[in-house]
Design brief:
Blueprint (H helix, E strand, L loop, with lengths): L13 E7 L3 H12 L4 E4 L8 H4 L20 H6 L9 H14 L6 E2 L4 E7 L4 E6 L4 E9 L22 E3 L14 E5 L3 H13 L2 E6 L5 E3 L7 H9 L1 H10 L19 H14 L15 H18 L3 H7 L12 E3 L2 H4 L5 E5 L5 E4 L3 E4 L2 E4 L2 E4 L8 H4 L2 E3 L6 H4 L18 E3 L12 H22 L4 E3 L1 H16 L29 H13 L5 E3 L1
Parallel strand pairs: 1-2, 1-6, 2-3, 4-17, 6-18, 7-16, 8-9, 8-16, 9-12, 10-11
Antiparallel strand pairs: 4-5, 5-6, 13-14, 14-15, 19-20
Helix pairs in contact: 1-14, 9-10, 14-16
The chain binds 3-acetylpyridine adenine dinucleotide.
């Protein structure tokens, strides 16, 4: 029995670890904790497992990382047995996979669904966390792990009159579980990020008319999605040891692909065009891996951006619409590049129109229309594809009190501060999975999730073996890490974009590049070295 459970004098329920969230991070964390003999309780606000893939059920939702790579590697049997049907898995299949994992490893009995963690307060005398949930209960935990996700706090825009709209209003990040049928309806779609770019072609097929309201034109490359053939799956499975090793240790973004060895300006126009064309033809996120300096050098980046702008002009027949769809406000890739199926071609349909809300922002939403520049665009339903309060939003919704009663929101008021993205000074025994300051959203999330979960699991085992009860990031080490994260970001083009990576999509949010851009391989080595040096930079007692 665990020591937390064996202390009857304290709260009625006590665990070694409380995990917040039953997405891919929470599920694997629970599995590891169980295997190590720690008692654990997972709280999940949704009615099922899957996190992102539980909530984002909008038409066309699928992962932009290839399914054979966007999957757990911790179980050889699982990765050999699970059959992905397409190159990019659709949301229902990823959700099915999450459910399969929960059943296969018998995880559900330690997960409480439909329950939010509202508050977590650190008791300095008892060195434990008091965790209060939405069902009014309080439990104790020696450790808390926030597996709350990075894009899990769907954000409704503040647009005048939105509440007065009479038709249904959907948010892509919080889509209904029952089927939504747009047949015969005029649909207004606000936003042109990944969620919009995936859903627009499908909605356009169904709706009487689709009006897309665009504030910032976005770069998107074709997915070239296709059914996965048995031979392709077999080849992957055979090579999994090398593919997984490469994704963890070599690839910057946790995705196995050939790494470029030269910069875009090292080739002449013809060679460059041939390389971009080949990547465009192959499809997918690795378009940005045509050269090794697209994220670093503006002139190099411009060559890729020009190529994509040229493709948009080729695809979209109406020159005015094509011009509007050509992004020119940010270097390509500095906002998460989108991966689409027929997005730009959708604007050739007679039932689709594009409205520029950059030059003339939405004035107001009325009972049946979106008003722009004095013109009412009549719609029967609205889809908000307006994104998330990314990386910190879901953590901020929990009232987290650390040493001296300081809240995490107070501490992070000027921007998130962490050591390695894993812990924040003043908040002992509180871990974050894929938090700000780690590669997180810049990577194949499952690769980063597994690395963090394994690191935390090994850390807890280290502490148990030595009879240690607390671990906390030192303020000094944290300051150094934050400075390093900023310095690496400043050396790239990323801070030039008003992206959610920068918190720029949330009015009033501090403008700080939140993820660590040094690459997953480099980051893993740093984390491993820290652990090998007795958790250097962390204070353990
Ligand atoms: O959200 P976004 P998303 N008035 O923030 C606009 C992942 N993801 O849900 O750019 C008008 O990217 C906003 O305009 P602007 C992926 O990492 C992955 O699409 O701020 N417009 C923007 O166009 C992705 O990056 C997958 O000027 C407003 C859009 O809404 C991340 O999730 C699929 C507005 C928001 O775009 C987020 O993607 C889907 C306002 N008040 C998502 N507020 C795949 O795996 C915001 N906008 C493929």
């Amino acid at each position: 029995m665990s020591s937390a459970q064996s202390n009857p004098a304290r709260a009625a329920e006590a665990y070694d670890v409380v995990v917040v969230g039953a997405g891919f991070a929470g599920l694997y964390m629970l599995h590891r904790l169980r295997g190590l003999g720690f008692s654990a309780r997972v709280y999940e606000q949704g009615g099922g497992v899957g996190g992102t893939w539980y909530w984002n059920r909008y038409p066309g939702a699928r992962c932009d990382v290839e399914s054979m790579q966007y999957s757990y590697s911790f179980s050889e049997e699982l990765q050999q047995e699970w059959d992905w049907s397409e190159r990019y898995a659709p949301q229902p299949e990823i959700l099915k996979y999450a459910n399969h994992v929960a059943d296969r490893f018998d995880l559900r009995r330690d997960i409480q669904f439909n329950t939010r963690v509202e508050r977590a307060a650190f008791d300095e005398c008892a060195t434990c966390w008091s965790v209060t949930t939405s069902d009014g209960k309080t439990v104790e935990a020696k450790f808390v792990v926030l597996a709350t996700g990075c894009l899990s706090n769907a954000r409704k825009p503040e647009i005048k009159g939105l509440e007065s709209f009479k038709g249904p209003v959907y948010h892509t990040g919080n889509w209904p579980h029952e089927e939504v049928d747009f047949t015969g309806l005029r649909v207004g779609l606000i936003g042109t990020g990944s969620s919009s770019i995936q859903s627009a072609p499908i909605i356009a097929e169904q709706a009487r008319h689709l009006t897309v309201f665009q504030r910032t034109a976005n770069f998107s490359v074709p997915a070239r999605n296709a059914a996965l053939m048995h031979e392709e799956r077999s080849a992957f499975r055979k090579n999994y040891p090398e593919i997984r090793r490469f994704a963890r240790e070599v690839a910057r973004n946790g995705i196995y692909t050939e790494q470029p060895d030269r910069g875009a300006l090292d080739d002449n126009d013809d060679v460059r065009r041939a390389k971009y064309s080949a990547r465009w033809g192959r499809g997918g996120l690795t378009f940005m891996y045509a050269y090794n300096n697209l994220g670093l050098d503006r002139a190099a980046n411009d060559t890729a951006a020009d190529f994509v702008r040229g493709k948009i002009a080729e695809i979209v027949k109406d020159p005015d619409t094509a011009k509007l769809l050509q992004p020119n406000s940010h270097p390509i890739g500095t906002k998460r590049i989108c991966v689409d199926t027929d997005y730009f071609a959708t604007f050739n349909r007679p039932n689709v129109s594009l409205v520029d809300i950059k030059t003339n922002p939405i004035q107001e939403i009325t009972a049946n229309a979106v008003r722009v520049a004095g013109k009412d665009h009549e719609v029967d339903a609205l889809v908000l594809a307006t994104g998330f309060d990314a990386m910190t939003g879901s953590v901020a919704r929990i009232d987290i009190l650390g040493r001296g009663g300081q809240t995490l929101n107070q501490k992070w008021a000027e921007g998130p501060k962490t050591l390695l993205g894993l812990m924040s000074a003043g908040f002992p025994n509180l871990f974050i999975i894929t938090g700000p300051g780690s590669p997180s959203v810049l990577s194949n999330m499952i690769v980063s999730i597994e690395q963090h979960v394994d690191w935390i699991a090994e850390c807890l085992t280290h502490m148990r073996m030595r009879g240690l009860t607390t671990i906390e990031a030192s303020g000094e080490a944290e300051e150094k890490w934050v400075a390093h994260v900023n310095e690496v970001a400043e050396g790239t083009l990323y801070p030039q974009a008003n992206s959610w990576y920068m918190g720029a999509n949330i009015p009033g949010k501090p403008r700080i590049f939140m993820p660590y851009i040094g690459g997953v391989g480099v980051y893993r080595r740093i984390c491993d070295e820290v652990a090998a040096k007795g958790y250097e930079g962390f204070v353990m007692e």
